[in-house]
User: What shape does this take?
Amino acid sequence: MTRLSILLIAWFLTACSSGGEKVATDSDLIERFNKHRSSFLRVLDMAAEDKNAAIISSSPEHTRSFDTGGPTRELSGERWLKYQKLFREIGCEDGILRQPQRPNVLYFSCSSVGSIGWGIYKGIAYSDAPLSPVFENLDHIEDGLGEGEMAYREIGDDWYLYYQWFD
Assistant: This one.
C-alpha cells in the first residue's frame, strides 16, 4: 500500500470521526447541492487549477499532494482559506479528495458517521466520465456493495452522490 493510499484512508477516517450521529439523506445532499451549485462549481474550477492536490482538507497539515503523498506546496495560505470559506458555505467542511486510481473524479466529503475503524461516508462527486455502480437511492443501499467500494446516484450534469462504508 502506497503512502498516499494510507493517507487517503486516514482522511476518510478523520472525516468520519468528525461527523454527526446520522449520515445525511440523499434529499438533504441534493438540496444542499442545488442551493449552493455555484459554490460547488467554484470549488471544481479551483481544484482543476490545483490538479496536483490529492486532498484539500479542513486542516492544512492534511492537505496532500499526488506527487509525494506529503503536504502540497502549491496552495498558498490565502488559497487554502478560499477553499475553507467555500467548504463551510456548501456544508462539506471536511474538504475534497481525488483518488489516485480516479484522478478525474472530485469527491466532496459532506456527511459521515462512525469512528476510527468503521464508518459510513456520503457526499457529492463530480466526474466527466460515467461512474458505477449507480443506484436509485443511497439511503437504502442494497446488499452486494463490498466494504470500501463506492456506490453512486446520478443527480445530473456529471454530478453524483456517493456512498462508501468501512468496517
